[in-house]
Automatic annotation (TrEMBL):
GO BP term (any one): methylation
Summary of the function given for this chain in its UniProt record: Histone methyltransferase that trimethylates histone H3 'Lys-36' forming H3K36me3. Involved in transcription elongation as well as in transcription repression.
Protein's UniProt keywords contain Nucleus: yes
Domain named Post-SET: residues: 227-243
One term of GO molecular function: histone H3K36 trimethyltransferase activity
Descriptive protein name: Histone-lysine N-methyltransferase, H3 lysine-36 specific
Length: 644
């Protein structure tokens, strides 16, 4: 496979051109969010919002949770935090699509390419630039509109692929993102994100951008047109045309994100391979092509892209290759990373989506069997146990049933660890966010205006939270008094006895103050000591002792008790499991003996039948041979009798 080296020219700047935003937005209807022409279009496949593990992080009046440098599992898998499912709080940094947090851009009029988009500030890589919005349509409407636009003389189409047989049409209704021009060496890329129950397309910076650069991405990956058009990008690797039948009929190139997820080299030959191959029939995949792909070894750093692709991918052969990459990895870091990035929830969705594909089901079950399991929390929250149980009952394949039963048995032995429920700030009893509830809220919200939206920065209207001191028993002790535990067990005797002259242990009938204990030395003489052993003396104490260490001793003792109880419970569980395994093996051995005995009896009966049949045949043949031996004599006698 030959690799084309990518050379890059110095990007031209267009800061001198005046803004043409007002003029450009008169050529179409500006909308803030995509319009779905059918409810099923753009479906993300998520039944409920997946929560991240982030917490609110207020710096001044800005919530920095789920930011670019955070380890937010939703952000890493191209999902936005949605509703009240997450504990990151309002206005977290992973709600850019919902809050329209666009970059500072302007529409400009270029010399050769018509309108384009210019970035007005220096912008770092991976910044969210703009959402590509329009009317979401199916393939039938897509083909009908291409013919209709051609008849009306519309030369510039604004179709973008959202999913299999689903397209965003920004020709007549859209946003400023429609003005991003094509380049064979782009500075932006298009990425698919899950926002609630819908898939949405965003334009992101592929590298660091300088103020004044034109924003461009590769149309041959995501955009669709009717006839091929001349390309004016001016890049050294320019292929000379945009769109045409190569893209719309034979399939598009693989995107950069898909190539990374598949572990392929991002060169020209790989990126155009699907466009050059003959399109298979509907429902078929090219087995030779799938088997020819040799992915790189999976590393923990590349897991994010794989999980993100599995969430939104609808191509069977891509799903198979991504699952095979996960299945082939034995690295515990990779398995832990996959598990953390909504592993159980994503695998559950794949099991539901591809329930009729035996190969995919077996691969997923084998992946699940390799994952480390300590508690049942993630398994229960993902609802994957019910899905596997349903597959075990309804799937007739022996291997699928065996893998399903083994998984269910291993999960049944796990216990759920208690966790304090997470709540969004200011929300009481925050439960899983329902997408039906979200739809009702969106229906009640006012319709957005048709004016072009100005870029929004992260909202900073959240007021500073007042400090409320804790209430309850911890604050109930009057000032100047020492609050001490009740019925505290005595600590172990001190390692040494008091020094100096022995004083008689006169108590005068008064009890020991709090925090003091007594013990006797080897001679039977009583002495006194504090809980933390900071004081050891012969004379009777008069004042109570502050004992911060006592609580630590109690906690350590309590922790030791918990550890001992857990160890004992684990030993009992292991012993019970071992007994169950022994009983199971004994039953299996007994069943095996029964089957062997039945098989032996059957073989004996079969051999006896064969022997009898053989004896009967021999007897019959003997009679036939005897008859044949006397047949000539009988014939002669019959002839003689007839003649006479």
């Amino acid at each position: 496979m030959s690799t084309m080296k990518m050379s890059r020219r110095t990007p031209p700047l267009f800061s001198h051109l005046p803004s043409a935003t007002e003029e450009a937005t008169k050529t179409f209807t500006v909308i803030q969010d995509s319009i779905y022409t059918a409810k099923y279009l753009g479906d993300s496949g998520q039944d409920e919002a997946m929560s991240c593990d982030c917490r609110s992080s207020w710096i001044g009046s800005i919530n920095e949770a789920c930011g670019e440098d955070s380890d937010c599992i939703n952000r890493l898998t191209s999902m936005e935090c949605f509703g009240t499912a997450c504990g990151c709080g309002a206005d977290c940094q992973n709600q850019r699509f919902q809050n329209h947090q666009y970059a500072d851009v302007d529409v400009i009029l270029t010399e050769m390419k018509g309108y384009g988009i210019r970035i007005n500030r220096d912008t770092p890589a991976n910044t969210f630039i703009y959402e590509y919005v329009g009317e979401v349509i199916d393939e039938t409407k897509f083909r009908r509109r291409t013919e209709q636009y051609a008849k009306e003389g519309i030369k510039h189409f604004y179709f973008m692929s959202l999913g299999k047989s689903e397209f965003i049409d920004a020709t007549r209704k859209g946003g400023l993102g429609r003005f991003c021009n094509h380049s064979c060496n782009p500075n932006c890329y298009v990425d698919k994100w899950v926002v609630g129950d819908k898939l949405r397309m965003g334009i992101f910076a592929k590298r660091n951008l300088k103020a004044g650069e034109e924003l461009v991405f590769d149309y041959n990956v995501d955009r669709y047109g009717a006839d091929p058009q001349a390309c004016y990008c001016g890049e050294p690797n320019c292929i000379g045309y945009i769109g045409g039948k190569t893209q719309t009929e034979a399939g598009t190139k693989l995107s950069h994100q898909t190539l990374e997820a598949l572990g392929l080299d991002d060169d020209y030959s790989w990126s155009t391979v699907t466009a050059k191959k003959k399109k298979p029939k509907k429902g078929e995949i090219d087995d030779d092509y799938v088997q020819s792909i040799q992915p790189k070894a999976l590393e923990a750093s590349t897991v994010n892209g794989i999980m993100s692709s599995l969430v939104s991918c609808k191509e069977k052969w891509i799903v198979i290759k991504l699952l095979n990459r996960i299945h082939a990895s034995e690295d515990p870091l990779v398995q832990g990373r996959v598990l953390r990035l909504h592993g159980y929830s994503i695998m559950n969705n794949l099991l539901v989506k591809w329930r009729d594909e035996k190969h995919i089901i077996i691969t997923i079950l084998e992946i699940l069997a390799k994952w480390p399991r300590l508690t049942k929390n993630k398994i229960s929250s993902s609802k994957i146990e019910g899905t596997v149980e349903e597959i075990c009952q309804k799937n007739e394949d022996a291997k699928v049933q065996e893998l399903s039963r083994e998984l269910l048995e291993s999960w049944a032995c796990l216990q759920s660890a208690y966790r304090i429920p997470r709540r969004a700030p200011g929300v009481e009893n925050a439960a899983e966010f329902s997408f039906d509830e979200g739809r009702r809220q969106r229906e009640k919200s006012p319709t957005p205006s048709d004016r072009p939206s100005t870029p929004k920065q992260p909202r900073n209207s959240a007021p500073a939270k007042p400090f409320n001191p804790p209430k309850g028993p911890a604050n109930a002790t009057p000032a100047g008094q020492i609050r001490q535990p009740i019925n505290q067990p005595p600590p172990p005797p001190p390692p040494s006895i008091p020094t100096g002259h022995i004083m008689p242990a006169s108590t005068n009938g008064s009890p020991l103050p709090r925090g003091w204990w007594w013990h006797k030395d080897p001679r039977g003489v009583k002495f006194f000591y504090t809980s933390d052993y900071s004081k050891i003396q012969w004379n009777h104490p008069l004042d109570p002792s502050i004992f911060p260490q006592t609580t630590g001793i109690i906690k350590r003792r309590g922790l030791d008790d918990i550890i001992q109880a857990c160890q004992q419970e684990y030993a009992e569980t292991a012993e019970a499991k071992m007994r169950a395994d022994i009983e199971k093996k004994a039953l299996e051995e007994e069943e095996r003996h029964k089957r062997e005995e039945e098989r032996r009896k059957y073989e004996e009966e079969r051999r006896e039948r064969k022997r009898k049949e053989h004896e009967a045949k021999k007897l019959k043949k003997k009679k036939e041979d005897k008859f044949k031996s006397i047949e000539p004599e009988l014939a002669r006698k019959l002839i003689a009798k007839t003649v006479s």
